[in-house]
Amino acid sequence: MHQYRTHTCGELRPEHVGNSVRLSGWVHRKRDHGGLIFIDLRDHYGVTQCVLEPSASVFAAVETVRPEWVITVTGKVVARGEDTVNPNLPTGAIELRIEEFSLISEAEELPLPVFGEPNYPEDIRLRYRFLDLRREKLHRNIVLRSQVITSLRRRMETQGFTEFQTPILTASSPEGARDFLVPSRLHPGQFYALPQAPQQFKQLIMVAGFDRYFQIAPCFRDEDARADRSPGEFYQLDIEMSFVTQEDVFAAVEPVLHGVFEEFAAGRVLPPRPFPRIPYSEAMLKYGSDKPDLRNPIEICDVTEFFALEAVTFNAFKKPIAAGGAVRAIPAPGSASQPRSFFDKLNEWARADMGAPGLGYVILEEEAGALVGRGPIAKFIPSGILARMAAKAGAGAGDTLFFACDRPEAAAALAGAARLRIGEQLDICEKNIFRFCWITDFPMYERDEATGKIDFGHNPFSMPQGGLEALDAADPLSILAYQYDIVCNGVELSSGAIRNHRPDIMYKAFAIAGYDREAVDDRFGGMIKAFKFGAPPHGGIAPGVDRIVMLLADEPNIREVILFPMNQQAQDLLMQAPAAVAPEQLRELHIRLSLPATDKKRT
Q1: Averaged confidence pLDDT in the chain
Q2: Which of 21-30, 367-376, 473-482, 543-552 bottoms out in mean pLDDT, i.e. has the lowest?
Q3: What region does 117 belong to: left with phi over 0, alpha with psi -120 to 50, or beta?
Q4: Where are the beta strands (DSSP E) in 106-180?
């Protein structure tokens, strides 16, 4: 018999009754029932109930064990009585009668319990992550992560992609976040950067003649934490393809993502392909967001034209409209019967959380066969205009129209946030379903409101729609790019693009954003040089692995699907990083610290 185990703690079934077996694992729970000792023994694979009678020779030794001690037990598998079968446990029809026992290692008093999985402060959970990972839910999430990555790899290979690894030590590149820099010992005063994404390398792979590339790529960005973003590092399914159009990328990626979500749906619904395509401008108008949650049935509409009419006398909207502002209507289906507190709380939320003056609203009712309004601003809108406005918004009697008025971008943001909040408050969003969509046709450029400067709206390496002709002749703010995002349930899984593979178009595109030819050669010389030697048209995308698993695990926070995450201050509490290093290491790297005054006491 094996020294530690003949079976795992999730393996035994009724067909094993009568067998002598050996199990090893952690004491998940210990119970004393009238002299009988019951131990739930846990390992990676599951839990087996073990029982010990007072007459057993090892009774005194087993009686001393505590939760999370690691033990080995040997004995016979017996069937449980009908009234003691646990149908919620795969091993619930049997138990192990302990005949032999050995202690492998003891556990000190636990800083957080493993059994029961109550909520615990995040700092304790991260400091003792190895204990936190023993808990069933988190353990299951991490196994799911591994299974998802395996499935992604298999599906990519089926689609004809080949996996390559790109460098970790590379040069700094503008990807929208701060780099993590690594000092060079051999080249004093110079630094490597950890890749924010393998963007340039994967394009160079296409220039090198490889056709379909992928990797599960680690990416490093020095940015603040959010519920759907881990500080420091994350992983993405990095993809690039040659001789493709935007639709070719969609056709390759959709089966992979749809297949993975279908495989791990666990009873949730997944609508058939193809995923809806929504232009960026339409998404911002209808949903107030470029990552719309399509489980919410509410669609926003533009009602500026109605409030601009002379017959509408709600002056609070007149001045913003005259200055180029917009009014967005957010229909709230079936909300007319809600108590006054529903409307008051939404107004307070708009003021306190969104910094807006409030949300104007009109409650729609029917009187004598005609649509009428009531509420704070209803009296300013003639009934005929209200009826036309409601028809455009798809609203009718029993609904409410809420209004957001501001500059177009700000009005869209407020309306989008209100849409989500109203959908949640009214409980009208679909449940147990994954709603995917593509967001397409992003603006190539945007204007910085503070400086007035034209800059790239998203990925600077994207191909502009219309090519060089559009860059030469069109208003830069009107130029669209072959850029696209894939979104699921309001979570952006990935951005992608058809790449700009022509040096002449790239120089012009960067010139519009204020980069001269010398600056482009200096910052992106490797890629520009490669493009001058024959580059195929190519494009790609990079769905975030962490976010995929977060959705499949139905977790609200990305840290629940990462083995050893950092906290919101980008600290690893378990390994105590970041940390000071020895003076000898700094000298070796030719680094002298110049810390802020408040930190000098720590040097």
Answers
A1: 94
A2: 367-376
A3: left
A4: 162-163
CA distance 139 to 122: 16
- Asked whether the beta carbons of 196 and 173 are under 8 A apart, the reply is yes
Nearest CA to 415 out of 359, 343, 459 is that of 359
Q: What is the DSSP pairing of strand 232-242 with strand 538-541?
A: antiparallel
Q: CB-based contacts of 380: which residues, under 8 Å, 6+ apart?
A: 312, 313, 314
Largest Cα–Cα distance in the chain? 95
User: E strand or H helix at 438, and its extent?
Assistant: strand 436-440
Instruction: Output the six-digit token pair for 134.
Output: 């023993």
Residue 260 in contact with residue 548, Cβ under 8 Å? yes
Indicate the burial class of 254 (C-beta count within 10 angstroms; 0-12, 13-18, 19 or more): middle
- Cis peptide bond N-terminal to 297, omega within 30: no
241, 567 contact by CB (below 8 A): no
Non-local (6+) Cβ contacts of 167 within 8 A are 195, 201
Burial class (CB in 10 A: 0-12, 13-18, 19+), 236: buried
Query: Comparing C-alpha atoms, which of 95, 76, 72, 75 is closest to residue 85?
Result: 95
3-state SS record for 341-388: HHHHHHHHHHHHCCCCCCCEEEEEEEECCEEEEECCCHHHCCHHHHHH
As given in the structure block, the two tokens for residue 458 are 């998203």
For 569, the token pair is 């201050």
Residues whose CB is less than 8 angstroms from the CB of residue 54 and which lie 6 or more positions away in sequence, other chains included: 35, 36
Q: What is the pTM of this model?
A: 0.92
- Could you report the per-residue pLDDT of 170-227, keeping only the tens digit for each? 988 765 678 999 999 999 999 999 999 999 999 999 999 999 999 999 999 998 877 7
Can you tell me the distance from the alpha carbon of 227 to that of 235, in angstroms, rounded to the nearest whole number?
A: 16
What DSSP letter does each residue of 511-550 carry, written as one string?
HHTT--HHHHHHHHHHHHHHHTT----EEEE--BHHHHHH
CB-CB contact of 144 with 561 (8 Å): yes
Q: Give the pair of three-digit tokens for residue 503.
A: 């040096």
Counting Cα atoms < 13 Å in the Cβ hemisphere of 440 gives 15
- Using alpha carbons only, give the angle 425, 430, 434 rounded to the nearest 5 degrees: 130
Q: What is the pLDDT of residue 459?
A: 84
Average of pLDDT values for 217-244? 91
603 falls in which pLDDT band (50, 70, 90)?
A: very low
- Helix, strand, or coil (residue 317): helix
DSSP assignment of 57-73? TTHHHHHT--TT-EEEE
Q: Give alpha helix (H) positions in 288-359.
A: 304-307, 315-322, 340-352
Q: How far apart are the first and last CA of the chain?
A: 57
- Under DSSP, the state recorded for 221 is E
In this structure, are strands 326-332 and 301-302 parallel, antiparallel, or unpaired? antiparallel
